[in-house]
Sequence to fold (468 residues):
Amino acid sequence: MFRMKRKVLIQQIGRYLIDFALIVICYQLSLFFTDLNEYYKVDILFLGMSFLGWLWVSRYSNLYSDRRSKKFSEEIVLVGYHMVLLTVILGAGIFFLRLNQVIFSVRFIKLFLIFLGVGTLTVKYFFRKRIHAYLQEGQLFDNVLLVGSTPSALNFLKTINQFYYYGYKCVGFLDIQESKIEGYKYYGNLDNIESVVKSQSVDEVVIALPASRQAEIQKCIDVCDYYKIKVSILPDLRQYNNSTIYINNIGQMPVINVGNLPLDSLENKIIKRSFDIFIASVFFIFFGIWLMPLIIILIKLTSKGPAIFKQERWGLNNEKIICYKFRTMYRESTDINDDGEYQQAFKGDPRVTRIGKMLRSTNFDELPQFWNVLIGNMSVVGPRPHPTPLNIESMHTVENYMLRHIVLPGITGYAQVNGCRGETKTAEDMQKRVDFDLFYIHRWNFWMDCQIIIQTIINFIRGNQDAY
Fold:
């Protein structure tokens, strides 16, 4: 077993115990709200089935995996998936074990699962905040020894420094030859790895050596195996950044497979399109029917011109589409500046109306694009479509820019929920956005779309200073 900090081990055990206690509490609450608490206090068989089902399902939902580096929206989707599986297990158990159908009615089961789902989210949110607080105070970090000073190693250091909640702290590094990384201690060449892991408190060794250094990599792994230290390898896969890759095995030999896009398959296309139609229909039925006419009235009362703005953008396979938005600028405004260049909206832009500022800050100006979703030239989630002039400008300055058009554009996207919103002032800003888009395209799944939608709602509640 890998070395584990005592506090982390106690927390993990505590999470199981708290969840078991939560199951009992939700059971009692469900009895109370079905007026059965006076007649039926505890059913050992049902609670035992709930405990075992909870543990068994968690193996498939990864409920107890370390997700401190992920967004809370992903936690919400994870808990939702876990509860769906648990519902199936409990339903099957009640049927086959023929438990008392009067006590375990549909109403009781619904209440039990609702209480349990909400309670689990509350507990996970609490633990998430506590772990982040400990990390911010300098506790619970995993001490990492870095082997190598390749670009992958430097990128790794930059990432763990920028995002403290990943929970890594580099204690120093080894390299094939003498080198220097500012701010980190150099422990010498790879021959010193055994003495370093013995003298330093090292929880994990991260190897970032060129693939050609097979002998050195294997030596590091052998030493770490002997001292029971976790090993991670940072491979140089930059040439595959724009491909879907996964690790497989042929016999005992690991193989990197370069696969097709997830949305190339017919079943995934059907799932995504069905989900788009469902979300767009729900929006129009419950919100669009009253919210959109209200916004149209406000726009017409505060400025002259049409309420709906139509703009040419690029969609799937670079085809031109008409993207619908609420007009947020004065009618006489132009997208071209005095130098003949396309001008994005910027902070304090005088072209934006008063109601337009509110619409942009809340993203309500994008609501008419649910019509684009219904007619099929946009998706709810996907790379954001850009105006034609911005596409033409970016395709010559941003690497792999045109690859973002191999799927339908979206109202919201993975880049947007990761902070890439608003004006792209430099080619580097656009490159970052494209990298997020390509990550989404090559790793799409249904649950990822759910997570992005939830995170979009969370970001809307929080507000975003880059939305203007």
